[in-house]
Amino acid sequence: MKDRDEGVTITAYPNGPLIVRGDVTILDVEGRAIPRTRRTVALCRCGASTIKPLCDGSHKLVGFCTEEPAGSS
Ligand code: FES
C-alpha cells in the first residue's frame, strides 16, 4: 500500500502561501475532499483569500508579510 505522504512537500513562501506538492487529500472541516486538479496547490495563510483554503493571490493586495518588521524583536 502506498503511503499517502510519500513525496509530499510543503514549502512556506515568503509573504505568500504554503505550496503543497505531492499526492495528498485536502479536506474541509466536514471531512469532504476539496477537489484538486493539480499535484501542486497553494494554501492561503494570510486569511484574505476568497477561495479558502486555497490561495487566490489576495496576499499581495493586503500586503501579507511573513517577516517581522525591523526593530520589532
Ligand atoms: S496566502 Fe495567498 S491569498 Fe492568502
UniProtKB/TrEMBL annotation:
Species, as recorded: Oceanitalea stevensii
Domain Iron-binding zinc finger CDGSH type: 29-65
Keyword terms of this UniProt record: 2Fe-2S, Iron, Iron-sulfur, Metal-binding
SMART domains assigned: ZnF_CDGSH
Superkingdom of origin: Bacteria
Pfam family, one: zf-CDGSH
Name this protein carries in UniProt: CDGSH iron-sulfur domain-containing protein
Coiled coil regions, renumbered to chain: none
InterPro entries for this protein: FeS-contain_CDGSH-typ, MitoNEET_CISD
